[in-house]
Amino acid sequence: MRLSPDEIIFWQYGFVKLNATIVFTWALMLVLVISAFWITRKLSAGITPDSAVQESKPRSRWHNLLEIIVTSLEKQIQDVGLTHPRPYLGFLGTLFLFVAAASISTIIPGYEPPTGSLSTTVALALCVFIAVPLFGILNQGLGSYLVSYAQPSVIMLPFNIISEVSRTLALAVRLFGNMMSGAMIIAILLAITPFIFPVVMTLLGLLTGMVQAYIFFILAAVYIAAATRSREVPTQAAMPKKAVK
Amino acid sequence: MAIDWFTVGAQILNFLILVWLLKRFLYQPILEAIDAREKRIADALKSADTIQRTAQQAHDEFAQKNAEFDMEKQTLLQQAKAAADTERASLIAAAREQADALSVTLQQTLAREQHAIHIALQNLASDEVFAIARNVLTDLAGVSLEQCITETFIAKLDTIDGDNKRDFINAMSGDKQHIRVYSAFELEPTQKTALSVAINTLFSADVQLQFETAAGVVSGITLKNNGQQISWSIDEYLATLKNSVHKLLRAREDKSVAGQVAKTAIAP
């Protein structure tokens, strides 16, 4: 029994290999990027969705969907504590969209979610692991960020470092475990009780995948917010327009 | 379930590429569209606010102008009304004065005409009365009347006073032959003689009288010489009476005119 799509290797040259994880990741990337490009190629700044009078063309429903997704992500990031969500939207939003798209695509027969690979989840967790201090340093400066590891006292320095590493590991393992278990359960159920029950479990798996995507996104946002919080004091003047409104 | 580090690296690279691509094709266009829309909404709100403020300002200005116009209209109306009232009052006063003047003039004219008619009637009546009396006396004249007249004339000659008598004598002294005696009828010889005697006695001279008849002498005798005359006739009485009557009427007329003028002066 395969536990990871890494084991499906389409092509290999030395240590360079083209496995299912990479292929399905590329497929997801293509779908996401092409969809985004197709929807956003002719955007309208119309005030209302059917503002044919005020604008030259109305907004499409896909445009509205994308706006809902983007503004929701922005709002979530802001709610976590990052009062200026725009700089983090690219990284955090892509995390959510990638994991969510990988989970939703499990309804496609023959599809293997890349997030079911520990390599992918480790890669994403490493990205978060690098992004958190990077955003922290960009926000606070190197010295200030490093000092934050010794807060509230120097004794806490090793614990903070351990916490940093362990949460990255936890991120990776949590996402991998959930996604892998979902795929495993469906595969086992298909072998035991085909037809109806696996459909229900697939639906449950979709829900679980969405929840995991949200958890991964929120945890990453929380870590980044924690790393940048010392500088991110919300003031009336510094708050973005949305927050002010 | 081992971690394939090549896959890990590839996935990190894939993820970073995906981040860049989604930033380029998803977040940036969507956020720009949202920002553009928000800016457009803000501009529209600002423009609407400006328009509303302008409209409010125009409304306020219009309301103020309207109020001023109403006030000015009221003032002008009041002034026009006051001027019209004044003009009306002055016109009415002028018309009343004119009417009063016309009325007074009319009353005076009427009074004058009435008075003139009255006077004319009175004169006509008196003239008629005297004409009737003259006619009656003329009709009644006869011998006996002529006799009486002659006697009466002789009696008058006796009563003539000194001045008249002296004037007549002076007038007569130059031409004593041209003393004429006029009567309505031819006198009887006895009457002529009586008259001659009486006159000669009066003037103490021998006077030759020329007796003539005159239609204008009514029941009387007239003695004339060189512009001097002594006469007695009923016509003379009538003339005296007529003069008296006319004097009396004139006095009454003057009194009535004075009374009317006083009434006119008192009347508003």
UniProtKB/TrEMBL annotation, chain A:
UniProt cross-references to InterPro entries, sorted A to Z: Alt_ATP_synth_F0_Asu, ATP_syn_F0_a_bact/chloroplast, ATP_synth_F0_asu, ATP_synth_F0_asu_AS, F0_ATP_A_sf
Transmembrane segments: 20-39, 88-111, 118-138, 175-197, 203-226
Record's bilayer topology term: Multi-pass membrane protein
Main location, first listed in the record: membrane
Keyword Transmembrane: yes
Subcellular location, record wording: Cell membrane; Membrane
UniProt KW keywords: ATP synthesis, Cell membrane, CF(0), Hydrogen ion transport, Ion transport, Membrane, Transmembrane, Transmembrane helix, Transport
Listed Pfam families: ATP-synt_A
Function: Key component of the proton channel; it plays a direct role in the translocation of protons across the membrane.
Family according to the record: Belongs to the ATPase A chain family.
Name under which the protein is recorded: ATP synthase subunit a
Organism listed in the record: Alishewanella tabrizica
UniProt gene name: atpB
TrEMBL record, chain B:
Sorted UniProt keywords: ATP synthesis, Cell membrane, CF(0), Hydrogen ion transport, Ion transport, Membrane, Transmembrane, Transmembrane helix, Transport
Annotated transmembrane regions: 6-22
InterPro entries (alphabetical): Alt_ATP_synth_F0_bsu, ATP_synth_b/b'su_bac/chlpt, ATP_synthase_B_chain, ATPase_OSCP/dsu
UniProt key word Transport: yes
CDD domains cross-referenced by the UniProt entry: ATP-synt_Fo_b (cd06503)
Membrane topology qualifier: Single-pass membrane protein
Keyword Ion transport: yes
Source taxon at top rank: Bacteria
Localization per Swiss-Prot or TrEMBL: Cell membrane; Endomembrane system
Family: Belongs to the ATPase B chain family.
Primary role: F(1)F(0) ATP synthase produces ATP from ADP in the presence of a proton or sodium gradient. F-type ATPases consist of two structural domains, F(1) containing the extramembraneous catalytic core and F(0) containing the membrane proton channel, linked together by a central stalk and a peripheral stalk. During catalysis, ATP synthesis in the catalytic domain of F(1) is coupled via a rotary mechanism of the central stalk subunits to proton translocation. Component of the F(0) channel, it forms part of the peripheral stalk, linking F(1) to F(0). The b'-subunit is a diverged and duplicated form of b found in plants and photosynthetic bacteria.
NCBIfam families, per the entry: alt_F1F0_F0_B
Assembly notes: F-type ATPases have 2 components, F(1) - the catalytic core - and F(0) - the membrane proton channel. F(1) has five subunits: alpha(3), beta(3), gamma(1), delta(1), epsilon(1). F(0) has three main subunits: a(1), b(2) and c(10-14). The alpha and beta chains form an alternating ring which encloses part of the gamma chain. F(1) is attached to F(0) by a central stalk formed by the gamma and epsilon chains, while a peripheral stalk is formed by the delta and b chains.
Name of protein: ATP synthase subunit b
Naturally occurring in which organism (per UniProt): Alishewanella tabrizica
Protein encoded by which gene: atpF
